[in-house]
Design brief:
seven-stranded mixed beta sheet, six-stranded mixed beta sheet, 37% helix, binds nicotinamide-adenine-dinucleotide, alpha/beta
Length: 491
């Protein structure tokens, strides 16, 4: 096991942070308020730096605007843009280990996940967008005869300047799935990471230096910076990943200038365990469906629905798994559960668990807390609640799940859908046909039957209050594109 640094000084595993903003072709120090970023595993300060003031945000938008209105990026051929994006992906790939270290330090993501979902998937996602960017997306409609004979095509045009605003939990993946799609569509933009985990995103300035000046700009700041980006008339599109509360603000903020919006929000995803499921082999993946990244994942399957007849068997297996779950230093390859991002977030999640227990919930499984200073909390699986309990309805964004019994499959489907959210679901069964039948009845943007994983070429996004629009592949690029009908009369 890698030991944590003993000194209060700089962690020798930390990348050489870049603390400058990227505005046009310049790296500039922020003129705004200072921000201190702690390591959630040790609570020690990683660094302190100055964020953007609003004039720097305006300058970043102006740079993106100029790059869009006058620069080469939107005017390149699809093939040229595709090649340029592959060069960006090459650079991202060479930085992967550095970015992974950055994410471990500022988010507390366990290394196994940092190396895969946080960074490797980011590279694959950009490569997929780069491949798709080579297709110009034109649809030829052929002749039309009223009132005169004409021919039409529908061209795919970039929507313009995009503000890509990301959540703290997967900074590199979210930056790439948003900005990568924008770039593939021919847009330019400004990237705003969460002020709780901005450091690794600032390292991307080096990666984007492959592109013409102003195509990608990076700023860091608080809600005032986000507000400026989402109200500024120079921004055409807002692509936001984060909480429902901020997403609703963004819709209101962007309404005045009628911006195109896509929102990737939260969830209270169900895992539906069908009566024939193989619990011996599936319980670990059912539970890791909500415990990965210490529960700080969208689409975490925090509501596990089991047939009443298999409740005891599931609960016993879950108890054993959770009690044995390795929690601790995220640098250790065996660690499954790391810290939460901030003490107030950890305290909030723990308070929701305590409130549920006071209202009669029971502990089915409770994990350990390592002997480290960081913001750790035990993993929980709770029972004794129904689907209406606050702990079953609110997204907690921590390592907390509930086990809900059902009587028949219709009851399971009704309970699974009884949530304001609709991002993701999982179904577990030994009967694929039965699993696919249940999947078709779930009001969610993606369903996995017996496992699977993120595919950069498949859409991801939410129904209901989990969001608007889709990410990844051609669906992601469409979010940054406008359909333009071009028609010409035939002589
Ligand atoms: P958050 O809503 O607190 O912050 C997200 C971003 O909003 C940050 O970058 C912040 O700078 C920005 N922001 C804050 N106030 C703003 C304002 N007034 N105007 C514009 N921007 C503003 O979210 P978080 O805590 O960082 O992330 C957790 C949430 O993100 C969870 O709800 C989770 O489910 C969701 N999430 C969803 C997906 C998905 O794909 N659906 C992926 C990751 C995270």
């Amino acid at each position: 096991m890698t030991s944590l640094p003993s000194s209060a000084g700089v962690d020798e595993r930390a990348p050489a942070w870049n603390l400058d903003l990227l505005v046009g072709d310049k790296s500039v120090a922020g003129n705004g308020p200072e921000l201190t970023i702690p390591d959630p595993t040790t609570t020690k300060t990683l660094t302190t730096f100055a964020t953007a003031d609003l004039s720097q945000v305006d300058a970043a938008i102006d740079a993106a605007r100029r790059a869009f209105d006058e620069g080469p990026w939107p005017r390149m051929s699809p093939r040229e843009r595709s090649l340029a994006l592959h060069r960006v992906a090459d650079k991202l790939e060479t930085l992967q280990a550095t970015l992974s270290a950055g994410v471990i330090l500022e988010v507390g993501t366990p290394v196994a996940l940092a190396d895969t979902l946080q960074t490797d998937l980011a590279v694959q996602t950009l490569r997929e967008y780069a491949d798709r960017a080579a297709e110009d997306g034109t649809v030829h409609l052929g002749p039309h005869f009223v009132p005169t004979t004409s021919v039409s095509l529908v061209a795919r045009r970039p929507v313009g300047v995009a503000a890509v605003i990301t959540a703290y939990n997967f900074p590199i993946l979210l930056a790439m799935r948003g900005m990568g799609a924008a770039l593939a569509a021919g847009c330019t933009g400004v990237l705003l990471p969460s002020p709780r985990a901005p450091l690794t995103t600032l390292l991307l300035a080096e990666v984007f230096s492959e592109l013409p000046p102003g195509v990608v700009n990076i700023v860091v700041g608080g809600p005032d910076v986000g507000q400026r980006l989402t109200t500024h008339p120079g921004v055409d599109k807002v692509a936001f990943t984060g909480s429902m509360a901020v997403g609703a603000h963004i819709m209101r903020q962007a309404a005045e200038t009628a911006k195109s919006i896509s929102l990737e929000l939260g969830d209270k995803s169900p895992a539906v365990v069908l009566p024939d499921a193989d619990l011996e082999s599936q319980v670990p993946s059912i539970l890791m469906g909500y415990l990965a990244n210490s529960g700080q994942s969208c689409g975490a399957t925090t509501r596990i629905l089991v047939p009443r007849s298999r409740w005891d068997e599931f609960a016993e297996r879950a108890r054993r798994f959770i009690e044995a779950l390795p929690a601790g230093d995220p640098w250790a390859p065996s660690t499954a559960i790391g810290p939460l991002i901030r003490p107030e977030h950890r305290d909030h999640v723990q308070a929701r668990v305590d409130a549920a227990l006071e209202s009669g919930a029971t502990v089915i499984g409770k994990g350990s807390v390592p002997d480290l200073d960081g913001w750790f909390m035990p993993a929980y699986l709770l029972g004794g609640v129904d689907n209406q309990a606050p702990v079953s309805r609110q997204e907690l964004f921590g390592p907390v799940g509930v086990l809900l019994p059902y009587d028949d499959i219709a009851d399971a489907v009704t309970t699974a859908n009884d949530t304001p959210y609709g991002l993701h679901a999982k179904v577990f069964t030994t009967d694929l046909e039965a699993g696919l039948k249940v999947a078709a009845q779930l009001r969610v943007g993606s369903v996995q039957v017996n496992g699977g994983g993120f595919r950069p070429d498949a859409p991801f996004g939410g129904m209901k209050q989990s969001g608007v629009g889709r990410e990844y592949g051609v669906w992601g690029i469409e979010e940054f594109s406008e359909a333009q009908h071009v028609q010409w009369a035939m002589a």
